[in-house]
Amino acid sequence: MRYLLNMTATTLPTPADLSITPRDRRFGRDADLTRLWHGGRVEATAIYNALSATFPIGEAYFVESVRAFREGAPPKLAEEIKAFTTQEAIHSREHDAFNKRAAVSGYDLSKLEQRVSDRLAITKSRPPIVNVAATMALEHFTAILAHQLLANPKHLEGADPETADLWRWHACEEIEHKGVAYDTWLYATRDWPRYKRWKVKAKVMLLVTRNFLVDRTAGSLELMRQDGVTGLRAWTLLLTYLWVRPGMFRKIAGAWFKYFLPGFHPWNEDDRILLRAYDATAKVESSTKRKVRRAA
Asked: Is 32-295 CATH 1.10.620?
């Protein structure tokens, strides 16, 4: 009975009618990727390429971490873990394809990919509960970045349309499954005292944040170096883009901080209106493309 009361209280914020639906789409298979695909801007292209370099390896890790707790989980959570796994597998496939196109355009992502592997090798040596805590923290990062990406069109302004659609699609599904890792954590730590649960998740998030900011900045600067932009100019362009205008990292700061507040849950903010807007737009675009193909 105590377990049932605990799970009811801690998982309530996840909408009961939430449907995690994999959207099996493919992007950019028929065209080469323009090197500076994000409006010709070296810093904008670099940060998105740096993020994409993390996804095939990182999302496989997320799946592994969460699936470790699927057996015995409440039926609804078990089904959400299954749908989460499917979505993440498709994300890995599409970003792997994107990364290969970036490589064809001239970028060497190997250093960035190796950095991700090295970080995860350390985490994987820890107990499964630490891995799900790290996944939960990183999933919060992806969810708040995704919210900002869909809520503010300026972030993808001037980008190659097909590539921008890849990022919007990914953002939509990251929001949709944003509570799965957190609910898995609540289930896995259901017998922990509240303070212990908060202390561990807070410490892991601080470490994840430090590594995320350091590694994505270093990765972006490396890719900018490959475009011949280095030194003070590279730092100025990148930090201005991330923290000032359009300021993605600055704009997610408030949502990041909420992670540490008592009673936090990713679904305390129900932002499914962004998903509905994306699905409606994607449906219209798909219909238009079909008509163009028939006319051709």
From this structure: yes
